[in-house]
Design brief:
Blueprint: H1 2-30, H2 37-45, H3 49-69, H4 76-100, H5 104-107, E1 117-119, E2 128-129, E3 135-136, E4 154-155, H6 157-183, H7 188-205, H8 207-228, H9 235-241, H10 250-259
Antiparallel strand pairs: 1-3, 2-4
Helix pairs in contact: 1-3, 1-4, 6-7, 6-8
Bound molecules: zinc ion (ZN).
Length: 260
């Protein structure tokens, strides 16, 4: 009986991870995210839509099963591992997609008015606009005075850092407590219950430190670059000001060479 459940768990794990990997592969290959030109084209032509829909539905089913059903027949450790594996595949797949298809809007030059900037140098304690990528001044509603973005676009890096560490602690502490408790002789059933509870808590809370620390890391990357290139000297910005010359179609050249 135990062997059959173990086998069932292995088969389900392979199916879930396989379906999620396949879906992320397809998403990364064809840039299948709402609003991208590739997706729009696909929706217009309707070609190959059915298999893609089937793959994505299968993966969504797998994710839902992994999160909400699998704990009923997995060991707590196995379930947490499964959920983390699913999250890992999604994160890596999305990263690959973003590398392959960088958002053209993200690269477009943002107009910065000098009077809206509080500091051209990185300063952890000053608000920073996610959109303008500068320490812009907050307006009356704590939004960005330069792009008029809402409050959510502005963040103070030092606040993100502290909140990130605090939330990471909140997520991990119950796990550590259960680990300590498990060193004493506690009955198996109680232990499984505690692991499941703390694992569930971890999964609910772990999103917060990820968001905070991701935002802090984005600012950090910008700050490092700004320290290397003070405002106005970054070669990447200078390039953007002058649009690159149109790409010459080399095929014509090759053809005329052949004709000669
Ligand atoms: Zn802004």
């Amino acid at each position: 009986m135990t062997i059959s459940i173990a086998l069932l768990n292995i088969i389900i794990t392979v199916l879930i991870l396989g379906s999620v990997t396949l879906a992320m592969f397809v998403i990364a290959k064809f840039n299948l995210v709402q609003g991208t030109p590739e997706t729009k084209k696909l929706l217009e032509t309707k070609e190959n839509l059915a298999p893609l829909k089937a793959i994505c539905s299968l993966a969504i089913g797998g994710v839902v099963y992994a999160f909400f059903v699998a704990w009923t027949h997995f060991s707590p450790g196995g379930w947490i591992g499964l959920v983390l594996a699913v999250l890992g595949i999604i994160l890596v797949g999305d990263r690959i997609r973003r590398k392959r298809f960088p958002d053209p809007k993200a690269k477009s030059k943002r107009k910065i008015k000098e009077k809206n900037v509080a500091s051209w140098d990185p300063d952890e304690t000053k608000p920073w606009c996610w959109h303008c990528q500068e320490h812009t001044r907050p307006n009356g509603k704590n939004g960005c005075s330069n792009c008029r973005g809402s409050y959510y676009r502005m963040n103070v890096p030092i606040g993100d850092r502290k909140a990130g560490y605090g939330c990471a602690g909140c997520a991990v502490v119950p796990l550590v407590i259960v680990l300590c408790v498990s060193l004493f002789g506690v009955s198996r059933d109680v232990l499984i219950g505690l692991w499941a509870l703390s694992g569930f808590w971890f999964l609910i809370v772990v999103g917060f430190p990820i968001v905070f620390l991701y935002r802090y890391r984005t600012w950090m990357k910008w700050a490092r670059r700004r320290q290397q290139y003070p405002y106005g000297t970054d070669p990447e910005d200078l390039e953007e000001e002058e649009p690159p010359p149109p790409v010459v179609d080399k095929r014509d050249g090759f053809l005329s060479d052949e004709e000669l």
